Amino acid sequence: MSDTILVTGACGYIGRHVIDELSKRDVHILVADPMADGSDDRYQVIEHSIFDTDVDGFFEKVGSPDRVIHLAWRDGFNHGSKAHLANLSGHVDFVTALAEGGTKSISIMGSMHEVGYWEGAIDENTPCNPQSFYGIAKNALRQASKIICSKNDVSLKWLRGYYIVGDDASNHSIFAKIIEKAQAGEKAFPFTSGRNKYDFIDVNELARQIVAASLQDQVEGEINCCSGKPVSLGEQVEAFIKKNGFDITLEYGKFPDRPYDSPAVWGDATRINEIMGRA
């Protein structure tokens, strides 16, 4: 019998692509998202709130899932939002209710921002010193989930994300801003030096990695969902402009580089390559 997979935040920026990827697999998909209206026949909508855990039979109310991919997170694009800390206990209660209810595998979307400032490759042993409310909350959930899942013999996959590209009009990034400027007919885009290097991953590849990591139990703990390749911001943006045929030019040096941004940071792809069957 195929596994039942509960996906939270399934209608969000990443979640929509995860559903596309999961629908290619022999699994039964449950979706918990206020935006889901039941019109998509690829999945079953769960009406009960994932944060209303203090009720009898909560695990059954969310479909008694074998596996969970927890993507839901409020204000993910606003790293200074107070909602990150205010909602943390709800995420911890949700993970606890799943683990105690009988879920055998929980995958949670993490972020490189839980690490804080770092130069070089990030792996599963890199120390975390987050510098934003978003990073602090994500890191606290990571630490709590490790304790909860270990206590209940649940396989935990902490899926650490990096800089996501693709579906760019929806991601609130610099790429979305360039689209807006280009569509407005502007010819110049004020920019930094563009020298900082980051790990960029297309959202469709990210979805493939999330699903592959979530449906296996051999590799557990912190897993970088990444390309493993540092690319300068300038190079990435120039390629984006060329790919889309925009008549817009980057004005390098109009904005100073932020002193708290690492000159180069990327994910160590060893563990995700193992999962994806890449040498």
Question: Main traits of this protein?
Answer:
14 strands; 279 residues; three-stranded mixed β-sheet; seven-stranded parallel β-sheet
- How many helix segments? 9
Order of secondary-structure elements: EHEEHEHHEEHEEHEEHEEHEEH
Q: Please bin the fraction of helical residues.
A: 25-40%
Q: In one word, what is the shape?
A: globular
Strand order in the largest sheet: 3-2-1-4-5-7-11
Class computed from helices, strands and strand pairing: alpha/beta
First-to-last CA distance: 31 Å
Radius of gyration: 19 Å
Major β-sheet, in short?
A: 7 strands, parallel
> How many beta-strand runs?
14
Q: Can you describe what's shown?
A:
The chain is of the alpha/beta class and 279 residues long. It has nine helices and 14 strands. The chain has helices at residues 15-22, 58-61, 83-86, 88-101, 133-151, 174-183, 203-214, 233-244, 270-276, and strands spanning 4-8, 28-32, 44-45, 67-70, 105-111, 120-122, 155-161, 163-165, 188-190, 197-202, 221-224, 230-232, 249-251, 265-267. The strands form four sheets. Strands 3-2-1-4-5-7-11 form a seven-stranded parallel beta sheet, sandwiched between helices. Helix 1 links the parallel strand 1 (4-8) and strand 2 (28-32). The longest helix is centred in the middle third of the chain and has 19 residues, at 133-151. The chain is globular and about 60 Å long. It starts with a strand and ends with a helix. The mean pLDDT is 94.
